[in-house]
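User: Can you model how NDP sits in this protein?
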Amino acid sequence: MKNRRLCVLGSTGSIGVNALSVAEHLGMSVHAISAHNNHQLLVEQTLRYNVKRVVVTNEDHYQTVKQALAGHAVEVFAGHKHLDDIAADDDVDTVLTAIVGAIGLQSTLAACRAGKRICIANKEPLVIAGRLVMETAQKHNAQVIPVDSEHSAIWQCIEQHKNHEIRDIYLTGSGGPLRGRTDLTDIKKEDALQHPNWSMGDKITIDSATLMNKGLELIEAHHLFNMSSDHIKVIIHPESIIHSMVAYKDGSVIAQLGLPDMRTPIQYALTWPEHKNGLVETPNFIELGSLNFEDVNHDLFPSIQLARQSLELGDFGPCALNAANEIAVDQYLKDQIAFQDIFKCIESTLPLVTQNHNASIQDIINFDTEMRQRLQS
Ligand code: NDP
Ligand code: MG
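Assistant: Here's the modeled complex, given as structure tokens:
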């Protein structure tokens, strides 16, 4: 494997921190990183990994970061527009996107236009503009490699069987923090934030509680693997050992297994097409004893059906779904709305969508802005 030079967008988050430890393990040099509010960790990471360029997207922290790094050979930039510069930097060949939310769209596209290897964790840009992200990557010979564990699994199941005919993709999900509940009234934030298997940022943990994470992943899979949504099935698998499966037309099913630890898919995205020595153990199958599967309770958790509906609405459907979800999850985390209001917010937003199957990036950005303004007014 050639020694890759890495840029991690969102290095201070759950994925970002894991990505830096995997990069260190692999002996990869980290050229550039970004953070939004956690300036202290940004400075620590810069010094520890000998980073050359840093972006603090929240400009309020610029002076603090600049002063803390004075005397070191580091360039410090403030504001979102500089994410595009570090993503397209000539000294970088691999960009790992670990920002949360659709705000990561422009920098994802900048990495595509610069022809980088893009290890995509930040799923929302793929949700709102997947067709355009994939087209841009193809046009500029960029490689888009999934980091999301389900998509990394599907990628691994498919890549060995390139010309084989796929019947269905099985996207597995743990069921999230609220699996088994029969009533979602008055769900406390503390309960919704307790994920049984994965340790992740707050937004994706709430998405796991509503099962919207699986809805977003369905849209993500649709774009990454060019599969129509009726061939993407979702099943609950509480142990999170099988990360997803691909069924072929002869009835054969290939699955990818591993412990629920994001360092495995992060490392594979960085080392692809090779599997290198890693930081994670193999599951102990005897201790596990059995693996279980359940159907989704779509009446209680309508997110996956809403995601399917949004895809039928054309380019703006997933954009509206995502904007409503981001705003509602933020409001729930700030104790402004109840848990079930997240579903209501999305349900009331989808009818506002106008059909469009040929939207440009600018159209998507304008529509996203318009939706957010309407939802917040
Ligand atoms: P975290 O909340 O832990 O981290 C988010 C990162 O984005 C932080 O570095 C944060 O900076 C930065 N950030 C937050 N807001 C902004 C903003 N407005 N502008 C620029 N940067 C910002 O999230 P996760 O690591 O959990 O998730 C990151 C992405 O990866 C999400 O899209 C998620 O869906 C996806 N993902 C995550 C998985 C996981 O296991 N965590 C699994 C699969 C996918 P700061 O902390 O400095 O404020
Ligand atoms: Mg996932």
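A couple of observations from the model: The domain at 5-146 is CATH 3.40.50.720 (Rossmann fold). The chain has a mean pLDDT of 97.
User: Helpful, thanks.
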